[in-house]
Description:
By secondary structure, the chain is an all-beta fold. It has a domain at 85-283: Beta Barrel (Porin). It is 2% helix and 62% strand. The chain has a 16-stranded antiparallel β-sheet that branches. The chain starts with 6 loop residues before the first strand and ends with a strand. The relative contact order is 0.11.
Amino acid sequence: LNAPFGLRTDWGTSTPFRAVATETDLTYATAWGVLGYELSDDLSIGGGISLSYADGTLKQFLPPPNPPAEFGFEGDDYSTSWIASLLWQPGGRHSVGLTYRAKTDLDLSGSAAAPEIGLAIPGASLDLVTPDTLVAGYAFRPTRQWTLEANVEWVNWKRLKVPTLRQAPLADNPIPFNWESNFMYGFGVTYAPNETWAFNAGYIFIENSQPDLNFNPAIADADRHWLSAGVSYKAANWAVDLAYQYAFSDRIVSDPNPAFDAGDLVAGDYSSQFHGLMLSFNRSF
């Protein structure tokens, strides 16, 4: 069980770009069923299927000349996907892995409303795609205690394109994402003094996937840096992992359109910081 996607932003109702976005929330959870098979002593393959649940919320104020009222949509959906992987371990000290995770198609069904003006749409829906990803990784163990790792992940954000909010009897509302696919580069080191304890640290750089032309503060993507440190404890057939992550980004957004439009409302300098604490429990059968 994991959460490969998810976000939350809340700019409040007094933000100067409230006609573009005030609040965005995506809760996303995935349960996996995975099997692996050893083709030889140094080559293994794996694959599986997943069931994902997504719950999304979008809020923004109606643009002028409408009366000042916040319009919100909320919907959820279940969907399935699949994953395939390959692991090659030549000589015992080297490991090369490749994993592909397929896209997930979602149709968030729910309702939309603007309570201040008495608008209620009980049958609204939003189509959404989470991207397929391809990860290549390499690990090297110079000694029994130390492991050095490097990963490159390609994320196909071009899948997003232009989701449509269907809100009959009102007209459909296209949401132009039109993102670019990006890469994530990760480096890590693990020190395991014995079979029970392991200590690790890492760094990840994530490329921005949101061009200025389609920038939306609902998500406010940017080049992002992640630092992490963690500890693992393993005993018999179970293990506990504790990790801390810190991320930061800074981005200046400009409006390439000389005419006044929504781009003028969102142009500016966006800085962010994230702190994360994760605890996981694993059991082998």
